[in-house]
């Protein structure tokens, strides 16, 4: 493309962009839908009514409650699968999902075009769908694109623009009617023919099904697919059959080894263990670890190590946590069983111990993006958590953070519950100073996912930076002997070791939006360009 | 009133009435709202969208999740209590409720007028509200009026027209936006300051809170009141705090002895025991009691006896039920614990054993009017129950039944889940042939609550009448030796004993509507007139 053409395109594109409150240029319309620019962390006030799908009547459903049809294809056809519909799936099967690909295989066979795929997340196993993105079976993906699909989008090859939302933002978008789901397909490890379903029992056990909750409540048509049908009633019903139109039995929903780890493992890297230790020591020094406190660590190797350090401190001091937020894993479960935690409030189970505990222990409670993360509710659980430990691909000098793109500009991760967790009372990001000789702390994040005002502490193997907005934390750890630095100091250390990294080159084409928790547009992701 | 005036009034009133599919004259408008006449049991097809209350934002709720205010009065004022609003309550406290009266005491103090009270049921303890119905604080009651309030309405003294709905019909009306709840006040035996609540623990324990589910989901403002506040999280959350605006702590919500029986008791009347035995023998002969079957009996003395006869038959034959529907009681709980029932699917607990079992046993499952009874869902549980045992105040020769008025014309009972249960595969009404020398089987029911086509069997102490529509049942028990009669024969027996009873006299004034499960108007209740 000539420079003139690019400039012309740039001008045309820019004319549709506005600068949002975070200083990012964002479009006012995408995929034919009006978009609201980010107004500030808590500034946008919604005005509408919650979405209402069509009222149903029992007169249109089998009197004996048996909604079983012979195949997924039949269910999709009966649900009215046709051009342009929005089809939702959930990601509890993670990279072991065998269901989503089948839906679009069927759509392709039926010659259906321009579908919107609305997964709660997509994984490398969904690379299978790239031909359907190319041939127009799928118009675009609204949902996180982990790995190959993200790379495909970053190359500018997706017809529509991807929309990235947090778990809570996804619930919000469905509840508020921003995304109208035509057909929800919900895979469940255990279900009855009425459609009551859970993720607790069976070879495709996922623990829970919360990521499909909004889909069941708000989609026009709901299909429950199981490889483990039980007689009515399937108890507990994490998904209520009263929302379900059709049920389908299949041989195999997922690949158990890829759904869930048989075992989760703590990092063995000395640097990461040190970061974890620093994080825990920081929490102790800041007075966060006290009787009745609450925490969310996550399931990465470093996070698991943080939990273990928490355990040591709690045991030593005789402290009990009121609750921990999952993703659950065997470490958290053992803390629950030892009585160090009163409750696990869980959003997803990361290993088999998590599944077992949830199925046995009433204090291991399943939650949903509605209870935990929906910003357009009357409060949610995220704000009540004392401390949350999260990751990031990049953090900038204003504590803004990125979780979706790498420093090379490629979109390779989803947002997950990350944005939602930023509302915790203290947000700590333990990150290495650099990865593959690319500094993590940068002048300005490639993609803005989390406004710096919500990010309190950055812990690296070379020191801890505290957001100047948190004077209370700065004061609390003043005499703790912890290696507190400014974020500028941390950046300089990284730059000295790695040199100043090359910046990625972008085309103007917007390939994805990053939504804030309230549905406004926080930032865009652009097509990665060729280096000159 | 002169005869001329009465005739004129009759004409004026009649001009607004239409004859519905059940042959009853019903008004097309009541309380300023358009009404749809009953179209047939499953004939009316809803066309709208589910109601959506206003979208909220976490920005408007306390960041730490603490929604506690200092009093119910403060909560009501903050919720915007003013003239003409619709205030909802639930009836899990039954005749021990100390909360509903307080709401209207506050309304009276504040000088608020013309409120609509939308309880899931009202009880004799709410007689306290009669002065507020008289002075215009409350305009009318939408909900069942057990006892004194029903009598008050029957005397033509309520300003508006009462609307009687089944439990499922109440959920349907709220979901469909027929009733828009402005403020829901939910009393909970156990709750946290965020609003998560259950009925399981505490001195006002009610077991569950399902009757308040629709209120929490669809009301514009929701207040949770508890006398047993626990630290977040209150687990399990039968009511989700994410729907709640304000929480209030009080000393005492209910009078435990009147909320729940310490003990439920089987009838000792020989006639009723015989009816119960006949009912059970009928079910056995008809092949209903078989492995994996399901039943709902209820908590009346006769119903409890039916359960006990079921137990004997099941033990004898080595039969296990897949599930029983509650109202639960100690008899049902013991069957669950003995392994005679896989699950109790419970809508309300009638005694302390029910509460205990529900709090301990994951197979004792709490349900709601949504899962069990909502006719405007994608199916519900009621249709899946093999046999249900219900009562009636009157049954006519077409098997139509009445549960709300007595033969003297007074409105003294609510519909409860009765209409919803009529969708069970077999509906049996064990009723005495007469009560206080008033025959139960009549030419035409005073008030039509259940169309005869849904009522399969009437069991009396003098014989069993099977609806001619159920040829299968007639055939099944042909050679059983059971005393099968026609319903005409039963009526003749009663008339011979009691003589033909005096008919009640009614004024034209319509004092209440009886809704069908789909929101259409099945019948009206009129003011009881003076006998000439």
Question: At the first level of CATH, what is the class of the largest domain in chain A?
Answer: Alpha Beta
Cross-sheet strand order for the largest sheet of chain A:
18-17-16-15-19-22-26-27-28
Protein chains sharing the most extensive interface: A-B, 66 and 66 residues
Indicate the mean pLDDT of chain A.
95
Total beta strands of chain A = 30
Please report the distance between the alpha carbons of the first and last residues of chain A. Answer: 12 Å
Domain unit count of chain A:
2
Shape of chain A: globular
Q: Quote the CATH topology of the largest domain in chain A.
A: Glutaconate Coenzyme A-transferase
Helix content of chain A: 25-40%
Sheet with most strands of chain A: 9 strands, mixed
The CATH superfamily of the largest domain in chain A is Glutaconate Coenzyme A-transferase
The CATH architecture assignment of the largest domain in chain A turns out to be 3-Layer(aba) Sandwich
Low-confidence stretches of chain A: 5-15
Rg for CA atoms of chain A: 23 Å
> So what's the oligomer here?
homodimer
What is the beta-strand fraction of chain A? Answer: 15-25%
Structural class of chain A comes to: alpha/beta
Number of helices of chain A: 16
